[in-house]
Amino acid sequence: MGLHAAYGARDGEGRHVTAESGSRAGLVAQAGRFLVVGVLGAVVDLTVYTLALHLGLWVHAARALSFVCGTTTAYALNRRWAFRVEGGRRRALGFALLYGTTFFLILGVNAATLALLPDRSWTVTLAWAISQGVGTTWNFVMLRTVVFRP
């Protein structure tokens, strides 16, 4: 498969397009790839979070560090595989702005969840999972419609 077949071409305005950009099947395929990337990013995120907590880092600092590590992993894989787009300063800036927003969203959801849940052994992990789910949903919509749109 050639480069253009795998990664698409450019339209008349220089935007990157693929055969799956506008189709329902393309959306499903893209969402599937995003899910795989999300799982890998979440594994990195949760691993760093758990390790940081085990090492005694403050829970909010641990969540911030884990988010940065998971996000770095997700950006690289989403750009090249899930959304199949080339880089560039504009896309990188859009991604940084989106994930900056997501950073505060997940920290807020994590903190609110910790405040609302009873203090049990599973509370920290559940708060992480809820904040991860909210952040992932937000990211897919924004990546598809704003950052990596064709």
From TrEMBL:
GO terms for biological process: polysaccharide biosynthetic process. Residues 33-148 form the GtrA/DPMS transmembrane domain. It is found in: Membrane. Pfam families: GtrA_DPMS_TM. One of its GO terms (cellular component) is plasma membrane. It is a multi-pass membrane protein. The keyword Transmembrane applies. Keywords: Membrane, Transmembrane, Transmembrane helix. The chain crosses the membrane at residues 34-52, 58-77, 97-116, 122-141. Belongs to the GtrA family. This is Putative flippase GtrA. It comes from Modestobacter roseus.
